[in-house]
Design goal:
482 residues; mainly beta; Methylamine Dehydrogenase, Chain H; 5-stranded antiparallel sheet; 4 helices; 6% helix; globular
Length: 482
C-alpha cells in the first residue's frame, strides 16, 4: 500500500474513503477461532518461558513490554462488554536473547464485587450490570484494563473514568488506587497521558463538559490539577500535545445524559461537526477553537507545531461510531457483521484559523510514534492494519515525508495487537530501533511476541517467541528498557 500525494483524499471524499466493507464470509465458519481473542483467562499467569520459534533477538534489546487489556468477561451466565472486562497486566521480559511472560489481574473493587456475586453486576461503558451493584464513586466501576504508565520505578494500570491503580512492576501485585492529592482523590485520569521527552506527564480527567488538566513530574508527583470548561460534553478517549499546546478533538458523540452503561447516554450528532480545542500549556485560559467535519475516533498520534504556527497531528478516524456501537458487539458474539475500518489521516490546524484533514488510504488503529519526539516534528507513524476482519491482521508504518505506507500481513489466522517503538541504545535518529508487539495465533492457539526492525517492517519479524497460552487481545502497552 503506497499512497502518493495524488492518492491523499480531501475531507469531502472522506466518506468514500471509509466506505463499509462487507464481512469476509470466508471467516464466518471460523467464528469460534475469533472467540479466542475475547476469551476469558481463568486466573493469574505464573512466570513462564517463551519458546523462540523464529530468528534471533537483536543485540541490545533488553527490557520489559508491559501490556494491559480486558481478560475476564463472563461470570455465571452474564457477560461484560469487551471494554469492561477485568484488566490483566502482562509482562513480557526480554533478556540475553530469551523472553518470559507473567500476568496478573488488577485487584479492583469491580473485580472483587463481580467475583463475590458470581455474576457481572458492575456496570461500565457498555455493560448494564445489575441493580444490586454498590457504587459510591468512579473507582467502584474502574476495570483498570486499558493501558499502563511507567514512571521511574512506578507502574500504573489505567482506565479512563477513575484513578490510576498502582501495580508492582516486578511482581505485578496490585498496590491500590493512586491518590495524587487529597482534593483530587477518585478523580478521573484518562488512559492516554502524554509524556514529554523529559518525562513530564500531561493528562485529562473528564466529567461531562468539565475537565481536570493533570500535570505530573517524571517521577509521578502532582505538579498541578487545573479545572477547565469544555465547549461540549462528548466521549473523549485520547488527546494530543505539542511542545507548547494541549489539543482536544471533541467529536460529535455527545453525552446527552450521564447514565450507566455510559454508551447508552451517548448520541451521534454529526450535524454538530468536530471541534478542536487548543490550550496553551503555560496558560490554560488561552484557547483557540477550530472546526472540522464529523469524525469518530479513539486514538491520536503526537502533535507538533511548525515555524509558521501550523499544528499537525495524525489519528485513526471513521465517519461515524457504528464500528463501536454495532461491530464490536457482533464481533464478541462471533456473528457476521459489516467491517467499518478507520483510516489514518493528518489533521492540519492553520495559523489562519482554518482546519483540514488530509486522508491516506491506510486502514489504521493504535498509532505509535518514536516517543523521544513527542511534541516535535516527526516522520513516522506505526500502526495496526487490516480492513475486512473483526480485528487487525497486520502492522504498518506510514512515512509522512515520502507519503508511503508499508505493511506486513501476518495472514488470516493471526490477531494483531498494538506494537510499540523501542529505540536502539545509543541512537538518536527517529525510527532507528525496533517495533515490539504481540499477536494471538489462532491456528496455534497461542500468544506470540514479535520483534521487527522498525525501518524494515515489511521484511517481517526478526524474531518471534511463542507462549504456551493464548491471551485475549489487549489494548495498550509500554516498553521499559532494563
Amino acid at each position: 500500500m503506497t499512497p502518493t500525494r495524488r492518492s491523499l483524499l480531501g475531507a469531502a471524499a472522506a466518506s468514500a474513503a471509509v466506505a463499509a466493507l462487507p464481512f469476509d464470509r470466508a471467516f464466518a465458519a471460523a467464528a469460534a477461532d475469533w472467540a479466542l481473542a475475547v476469551a476469558d483467562v481463568g486466573g493469574d499467569l505464573p512466570l513462564r518461558s517463551l519458546r523462540l520459534i523464529h530468528g534471533r533477538a537483536p543485540a541490545g534489546l533488553t527490557g520489559t513490554l508491559y501490556r494491559n487489556g480486558p481478560a475476564r468477561f463472563t461470570r455465571g451466565d452474564t457477560r461484560a462488554h469487551w471494554f469492561d472486562g477485568d484488566g490483566l497486566v502482562r509482562a513480557f521480559r526480554i533478556r540475553d536473547g530469551n523472553a518470559t511472560l507473567a500476568g496478573r489481574f488488577v485487584d479492583t473493587p469491580k473485580r472483587r464485587a463481580d467475583e463475590a456475586a458470581g455474576a457481572i453486576v458492575t456496570p461500565g461503558f457498555g455493560t448494564a450490570g445489575a441493580a444490586s451493584a454498590r457504587i459510591s464513586g468512579p473507582d467502584d466501576l474502574n476495570a483498570a484494563n486499558t493501558s499502563v504508565l511507567a514512571l521511574g520505578d512506578r507502574l500504573w494500570a489505567l482506565w479512563e473514568g477513575g484513578s490510576p491503580t498502582a501495580v508492582d512492576p516486578r511482581t505485578l501485585e496490585t498496590r491500590g488506587p493512586v491518590r495524587l492529592s487529597d482534593e483530587t482523590a477518585g478523580a478521573p485520569f484518562l488512559a492516554h497521558p502524554r509524556v514529554e521527552p523529559d518525562g513530564r506527564v500531561w493528562n485529562l480527567g473528564l466529567s461531562g463538559d468539565r475537565a481536570i488538566v493533570w500535570r505530573l513530574s517524571a517521577a509521578g508527583e502532582l505538579e498541578a490539577a487545573t479545572p477547565i470548561q469544555l465547549p461540549r460534553a462528548c466521549y473523549l478517549h485520547d488527546f494530543t500535545a505539542t511542545e507548547r499546546e494541549l489539543i482536544l478533538v471533541l467529536q460529535p458523540w455527545i453525552q446527552e445524559q450521564f447514565q450507566l452503561p455510559v454508551m447508552e447516554g451517548l448520541r451521534w450528532r454529526p450535524e454538530l461537526g468536530t471541534v478542536v480545542l487548543v490550550l496553551d500549556k503555560d496558560d490554560l485560559g488561552k484557547r483557540r477553537v477550530f472546526e472540522l467535519p464529523p469524525l469518530a475516533f479513539f486514538h491520536l498520534g503526537d502533535a507538533w507545531r511548525e515555524a509558521d504556527g501550523t499544528i499537525r497531528f495524525d489519528g485513526c478516524f471513521a465517519p461515524d461510531v457504528r464500528h463501536v456501537s454495532d461491530d464490536i458487539g457482533a464481533m464478541a458474539r462471533g456473528e457476521p457483521f459489516v467491517s467499518r475500518p478507520q483510516h489514518l489521516g493528518m489533521i492540519v490546524l492553520g495559523a489562519d484559523g482554518r482546519a483540514r484533514i488530509d486522508w491516506t488510504r491506510a486502514v489504521a488503529e493504535f498509532p505509535q510514534t518514536d516517543r523521544r519526539r513527542a511534541g516535535l516534528a516527526r516522520r513516522f507513524t506505526w500502526h495496526v492494519t487490516g480492513d475486512s476482519r473483526p480485528l487487525p491482521r497486520g502492522l504498518a508504518v506510514t512515512d509522512w515525508r515520502k507519503e508511503r505506507t508499508e505493511t506486513f500481513d501476518f495472514g488470516g489466522r493471526q490477531v494483531v495487537e498494538e506494537a510499540v517503538f523501542v529505540p536502539r541504545p545509543g541512537s538518536t535518529a527517529e525510527g532507528d530501533g525496533w517495533l515490539v508487539g504481540t499477536t494471538v495465533n489462532l491456528a496455534a492457539r497461542a500468544t506470540e511476541l514479535h520483534v521487527f526492525e522498525a525501518s524494515r517492517l515489511d521484511a517481517g519479524p526478526v524474531c518471534t517467541w511463542r507462549a504456551d497460552v493464548a491471551l485475549p487481545a489487549g489494548f495498550h502497552g509500554t516498553f521499559v528498557p532494563a
